[in-house]
Amino acid sequence: MTHSHPSVPAHTIAPAYTGRLFTSPVPALRMPDEAMEPQAAYRFIHDELMLDGSSRLNLATFVTTWMDPEASALMAESFDKNMIDKDEYPATAAIEQRCVAMVADLFHAENLRDDDPASAIGVSTVGSSEAVMLGGLAMKWRWRQRVGDDWRNRTPNLVMGSNVQVVWEKFCRYFDVEPRYLPMAQGRYVITPEQVVDAVDENTIGVVAILGTTYTGELEPVEQICEALDALAAGGGADVPVHVDAASGGFVVPFLHPGLKWDFRLPRVVSINVSGHKYGLTYPGIGFVVWRGADYLPEELVFRVNYLGGDMPTFTLNFSRPGNQVVGQYYNFLRLGRSGYTEVMRTLSDTARWLSHQLAASEHFEVISDGSAIPVVSCRLAGDRGYTEFDVSHELRTYGWQVPAYTMPEGAEDVAVLRVVVREGLSADLARALFDDTLKAVTALDRLKPGGHFDDQQHFAH
Questions:
Q1: What is the pTM of this model?
Q2: For the stretch 236-262, what's the b/e string if a residue is b when 16 or more beta carbons lie within 10 angstroms of its beta carbon?
């Protein structure tokens, strides 16, 4: 029989999971009857979260999974600040408006003044989903103003590709807008100007063009779409605005392809949304929507709220939310600047293009997008290999990698694709490890030939 030293409390040497912590499961579906020590609550939750996949190895998501430790510290210090309470947290409110101004300036918005951040017309949002809703609402209200009192007898429509993110479908359903989806085709996974012109009419509130599709990372031809709509309007046809969904590419293209015209340099582009928590390099969830100028955000959509002692204009779907994401975004803008973002995006693009080259050289894959537009690699299996992209995705999970497989949207439903999002945190060395594991996976599948055994397992690929 052993005895503990009399000066050492017995609980300090008791086994953690059979003494200091509970020996029976805690309730999962009801609140426990008794309180527990903070260390015990932490340990229970920490241990369960170990069952999640590694966020760094989740190559399905565009969302940022790594930031500087200094950014994490600043964000932790701001968890308790309510973003909506601008009167009580004026410094956080000023930081938000500076971020909006920086985004508007990056996208060449009109009439910006260096001495007045409020000259930028826009707002921070909870990711691009809220930003999309706000951009769509502004287009719908401007359409109502354009057609006059007869709008109640008409059905507004929105023209977009079948490759749009599901939030656009939500917008149309929630706000009574007819979606007009333009189909894809095998070998073409973006919309064309010809499709757009054929689909619009006097009841079209706008056209959505995507700068970096979630399916392949490709850039839709925004400038050519605008030129086609300009010609249509000049010939007496419908005069339709364009909204650019730059959720994925808005913080990439200005640095990788600064000469490409897709933003407010094109007069027909009236609004743009972008995700700060994607290639803005900030933890989720933060996004922005900005307008060309004040004329493009109808005043009827701006609420004046007397909240906690201050008169506050607001145009958001959400109300209370933490200010820490805006603080994290501001840190990135100051920390990196234009030169830093350029260096990051070039490095990510280099890594993506190296990976795509290796995949093509392996002769197992046909590359669809090589990471040169934005750092996204999409590919399909070359030839009939006796297994499918879904089998490859499942096999890669055994190595810890989450690489989504999915079928393409309407018009190209028979095409299945694998996609790798190269983000900050996926180093060149990790990309090499991914390629090595991909070769192991396809070598194993070459022997097994499961014939699409895992085709029904289509994982979410945001």
A1: 0.91
A2: eeeebbbbbbbbbbbbbbbbbbeebeb
